[in-house]
Amino acid sequence: MLLAIPLWAKASIWGLVSGSALLIGSAVGYLANVPRKIIAFVMAFGSGVLISALAFDLMDEAYQRGGFTSTAIGFVSGAVIYSLADFLLSHKGAQHRKRSGNQQPNENEHPGSGLAIAIGALIDGIPESIAIGVSMIQGGAVSTAAVIAIFLSNLPEGMSSSAGMKKAGRSAKYI
To answer: Is pLDDT above 70 for 104?
Structure first.
């Protein structure tokens, strides 16, 4: 007899799967000396996949379920909130939190920048988690395109930020 898995647990599992790419990418960025051009290529590919999933899967689903007005309000509100959070984080020492070069400050140069990096990662993950959860509400099935897109965009994000933190002299425990 198969156990029925609650919808919240399914959403958590799929969120964990897509979010695990941050840890995988972080490990690769820290342990391997990945050339910056490769990181840039993977970041561009991941961004393209994420934008495609948003444009062709998630926005269409939002429009079909909620209509134009609620979809537009949600899209613009999310963009404004994310942009404001990014602006605030940039002014708190995290403007280079995802850079793989030597731009990331260390804690001695800019105290609190580490917390800003962590908050930035949290804010980045919230819309991704919401997209996965919302895609499951009606039928209980996850949007495969959304999970793949989020996974592929999180890999280079983890690689780039951990490589940058390593170059900034942050410890492995910190990263």
So the answer is: no
DSSP 171: -
Q: Which pTM was predicted?
A: 0.69
Q: Name the strand (E) or helix (H) holding 43.
A: helix 36-53
**CB contact at 8 A, 159 and 34:** yes
Q: What is the mean pLDDT of residues 115-128?
A: 69
**Does residue 111 register a pLDDT over 60?**
no
Instruction: Tell me: pLDDT of 96 over 70.
Output: no
Residue 1: exposure state from Cβ atoms within 10 A (0-12, 13-18, ≥19): exposed
Q: How far is CA 28 from the centre of its chain?
A: 16
Mapping DSSP to helix (H, G, I), strand (E, B) and coil, where does residue 104 land? coil
Spell out the residues 6+ positions from residue 138 whose beta carbon is closer than 8 angstroms to its own: 65
Which tokens hold the place of 41? 């290529």
Distance CA 73, CA 113 (A): 32
Please say if the pLDDT value at position 84 is more than 80. yes
Instruction: Name residue 156's amino acid.
Output: P
Burial 44-56 (b: 16+ CB within 10 A, else e): eebeebbeebbee
